[in-house]
Each structure stands twice: as structure tokens, then as C-alpha cells.
Design a protein that fits this description.
Number of helices: 3
Shape: elongated
Helix content: over 70%
Radius of gyration: 23 Å
Order of helices and strands: HHH
Number of strands: 0
Distance between the termini: 39 Å
Length: 111
């Protein structure tokens, strides 16, 4: 599954690089002969950066999910288990903001 996602991402990068190369040629920033080198270089750099960006996105998601679970647990009644917290998040209930300051009791916003 990850392989197909990587192929899709690289195809999008390739199309974007080709488009950008065409725009730069149209505006006389680079010549037509420089375009193929520019596109190839951009794709190579994107291929190197894509795994790093993927890892960064996964890390940020895990930090967000952990903070959301922590704030939800603080707002739950005393004695709630980890499974209770996970179930509340899974059903899509409103959860406290992950930006709640450390000196404030987290609560669910009023709708």
C-alpha cells in the first residue's frame, strides 16, 4: 500500500515539476534546454525529501493524537479507563482542545 502511495506522490511531483518548468520557460527565466535538467533535478530532490516529509507528517499526527487522548482523559470522569477514552474519541464525540493551557481544566466546549 505504501508503494502505491509513494508512486502517486511522485507522479504528482513530476507533473508539478513539469508544469513549473514550462512556466519558467514561458517567462524566460530558463531556456528550453535547461528545462529537462531542472525537472530531473527537482524530481530527484523531491524523491529524497518525500520520505522525510512523510516521517514528519506521521510524527506530527502521533503528537496530535496523543495530546488529544491526554486532554480527553483529563476531561473524563474519575475512574475512566484508557478504553473509555479511546471509545469516546472513536465515536467522534467532541473532545477538549489540544491547545488547552496547562493551568486550565480541560472541558468540552458548549455548542
Amino acid at each position: 500500500m505504501a508503494t502505491i502511495l509513494l508512486q502517486i506522490a511522485m507522479a504528482l511531483v513530476q507533473v508539478g515539476a513539469a508544469f513549473l518548468g514550462g512556466v519558467l520557460v514561458a517567462h524566460h527565466v530558463i531556456t528550453t534546454t535547461q528545462e529537462s535538467t531542472f525537472v530531473a533535478s527537482l524530481i530527484t530532490h523531491a524523491a529524497l525529501a518525500l520520505p522525510v516529509l512523510g516521517a514528519l507528517a506521521l510524527t506530527l499526527w502521533n503528537k496530535y493524537a496523543g495530546r488529544r487522548k491526554f486532554m480527553t482523559a483529563l476531561a473524563m470522569p474519575k475512574g475512566a479507563t484508557e478504553d473509555d477514552v479511546t471509545a469516546k474519541i472513536a465515536i467522534g464525540s467532541v473532545t477538549p482542545s489540544i491547545l488547552t493551557p496547562s493551568n486550565t481544566i480541560p472541558g468540552v466546549p458548549k455548542l
